[in-house]
User: What shape does this take?
Amino acid sequence: MTPRQHCLACLPSSVFEAALWICAEHDPLFTPDQTQHDMDSLHRQIDAALPSMPRQELAQPLLRQLNHLGFQQDDWNPLRPQAALLNQIVKRRRGQPLGLALITLELARRLDIPLEGVNFPGHFLLRVPGADHLLDPCGGRRLYTKDCRELLARQFGPDMQLKAEHLVSASSVAMLQRLSRNLRHLHQVNDDLLASLKDADRVMALGQATTSDYLARAALYQTLECPQAERFDLEHALLLSDDPVQRLRLTERLSHLPAHGAVH
Assistant: This one.
């Protein structure tokens, strides 16, 4: 099977292994066993350092141990794809919140610590099921409702309101789609358009795509001068969009592209 096929086959049972196959898709010399070996070592090291407490109380100590071992948010500016690729995060101990969360979730699974991902806008978070707070994967800080509002305002401005949908548990597919969108953006801003296109395709393969997903891939096809593929994605974006202004702009943009089957 191809790395993409392996990735899809892993879901929903192992989001961590599926994410490693994404790394293999971008690096043909990489195999997931390499990082799994590093995770085995990390698992033993953290298990020995965790306090003797009930499992449901060990999520924050787990995050603090990871932070003590050097796992932190990548502050390189601008960010590079290695901030999202799981094998690179394990190796460098630096990454985006989602990547750090995926490592934490895998260790929590191995250690029987209850923990789930939360698809919070702009900064992926974690939660012990039933707890009245969230956890920041970048160090383990507890976040209550007031903290979540402040985090949202810092990232999107004071007009962004906290909604119940921001606190919903993330499915395996949702996490992999978010990871793929992150990589799509990072590869694009680092001028690796073919790698970005792989990530854009994976978003579609994993599950239902949004208008923004089709527009993002259409922009890549436009830069790569693939007008038929660009038209395909713009037409799907038009079907999904419920914004009258956006629909008008998409219709105008489509009128400047060659019709299906046109010869160049």
About this structure: The radius of gyration is 20 Å. The first helix runs from residue 3 to 10. The CA atoms of residues 61 and 214 lie 41 Å apart. The chain is about 60% helix and 5% strand.
